[in-house]
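Ticket #4471: structure output looks truncated?

Reporter: J.K.
Steps to reproduce: submitted the chain below (749 residues) through the standard prediction queue, then opened the result file.
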Amino acid sequence: MKNNFANPVKFSLLLASFMLVCGFASATTYTAVVSGNWSSSLTWGGSVPPANLTSADQVIIGAGLNVTMDQNVTLNNALAQINVLGTLSSATHIQLNVVSGTLLGSGNIITSQLLLNATGALTFTGSIIADTLMNSIASLSSAAQMTVNDELNLSGIINVTIGGSLKMGANSTITVSGASIALSGGTLDLTSNYNVEYTSVSATTGLELSGSGLGKVTINVSGGNSVVLTSNLTTNDSLKFTSGTLILATHNLTVNGKLSGNVNISGDLASNITINTAGGVSSAIMFTTGFQNVNNLTINVGSGNSVKISSNLTVNGNLMFSGNSKLDVGNVMLDLAGDVTGAGSLAVNSGTKLSFNSSGSITGNINLSGAEVGKFMLNLGSGNSLKLGADLIADTLDLTSGILVLNGNNLTVKADITASGTGVVFSTTSSNITVSSSSGITGSLGFDITGDSVNTLTVNIGGSGSLKLGSNLVVNGNINFMAGFVDIGNSNVTMGVNGSVTGASATSYIITSGSGNLIMHANLTGTAKFEIGTSTYLPAEITLNSGSDTGSIGLNVSSGVYAQGTSGIQISSFQPMVNATWLFQNNIGAGINANMKLSWTSAAEVNGFSHTDDYISHYASFWDNVGDSMNAVFSGSLYSVTRANVTSMSPFAVFDQQTIPTGTNEITGTAGAIILYPNPAFQNLYIKNTFASTEVINAEIYNTLGQMVSNYQFKDDVFTIPVGKLATGTYLIKFYNDNMQVVKKFSKL
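Returned output as attached by the reporter:
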């Protein structure tokens, strides 16, 4: 006889068949004969079916009968069945638990809890009304008409097929644990108010969010897990985050209610977010690293209320405010690539970085609240503008491109203006600008040609640093120096009629490093003070005399003095003088009559300049010597000299009695007092002295480089100077003693 048990597979099949036969052999069929409780023998006409059906028992409830579960009932055998053709109902808190086996029939099931476990089966096609329905069957296809009054818990998919339906009751909840709802010919009724909660594991949204009655949505998946949107999400009640991330995945999010919890969102450049939360949002919104972006962001939380962002964010589209809402971006970077519209504000602090990177102008006014913004960057492209709706206080101002319109508000820079960029400020006399820094400003501050005026400009820059101007500027009020310099370069700074420069000193003044001018208004009631200099402090004052015309006077001061005023040999490289040229210009014209005062520090003195018998020399076609000669007056750290009755403006310089401004015409103290002949000379030059004095006269000959080539002393009426050994060319000869100074020019053949 052949041994069939030698094959393990055949043995297993035989064993399974044996057990199945034994199971059916031990199965009992319980058929209800009257309506009643499950535990009553009257209901079954004899033996009561066990509450835990662990055998292949069959329970049949016929049509027209109602069996009430007065205890929990469990199907717990793959061959067990409950066939409901009538009604199976339950008392409160009683559950029908399908662990394994089949729930079938076409009647009515009304229960507090219906639990469909992973190994169970539901082929029932009748009506199911449950307070709680939990499905763990991986993929359940149902033609039943299901109504859930309290909670639908989805650990497995429910696919509603033809003839079937699923309806959520008022104030019910769909709990999604990694599964979903599907429709294959059936219907889904989510018109009553209901809530959705995602728990335990990552999930992809589906039909559970499609109902008009959607209220609260809760994200409560464990850390590291996420909920991925497959369609736009609009919550009419609230959105709560307990744990996990909501991934927008190109879809839109609209919150029409409360937003709370540990809000963590993975953004998308194609997604829009709208927050309509009356009273504001108490929880901060965190965007996941690498997905810190949205398309449009709308904030509508009521006047004075706010939404806080706790991570960096790029708004690729538009930022839209409504109802004076506030977006709190403290300690994060907000990059706005589109427009800003509506009534609202941005709450900022020193950790905030704001970047406006639109390709066009910003429509709405930008209102900032908070002590200051860490960095404010404007990059709108040429000609496009952003208009402030409130004062701007920025640690760092970056004007990459575009126009910052102050709109009557004040601008304060507390640390730096970046070096790169072509952006400018549009300002009027309604705005004040303050620039501060502990060590200097990197870039320059430029103004739009049609908006280049301010009320006051305050400068407080440490470390001997300066604010560089990149354009002309009109200051209607004051320039207030607290520390540091203003370097106007090639730009003009024009002071208003009543404007002045305050707080200037030897360590804080206006530098004219280029061709720019400080322009002051001169009138008959005061003195125009020019707080100006180069690397040293070189202030000037103009006081108009009675009868003078009035108007504007501009001043540029530069290092060096030149033989032809602003050109030619730099005579300050070898002649004793103050190493500066004060170049005055004015619109008063021939009607000007003024007293001039020029001042300097000892650092500006060169080549043994003396403080005795100094004078202000004016270059017209030559440097003259008709100004008042005086000993320089010392006050504080400054020396100064004055010149009365100035009637024209051009270069001025400060000389002493030893200065020979080489390259100029002859300078005479008394006309005809010294006569040179022959001129040109070849071997000898004769000097005729017509001074009525017997004092010794010093004579010094200088070449056109300002170098002294010979010197003599004489007191005779006629004196001969040999010049035969001099090179052919032009020379100056200076005659002087304690009572006179004369400079003559001669040529050597």
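Triage note (M.O.): checked the attachment and the full token line is present. The two ends are 152 Å apart (CA to CA).
Status: closed, working as intended.
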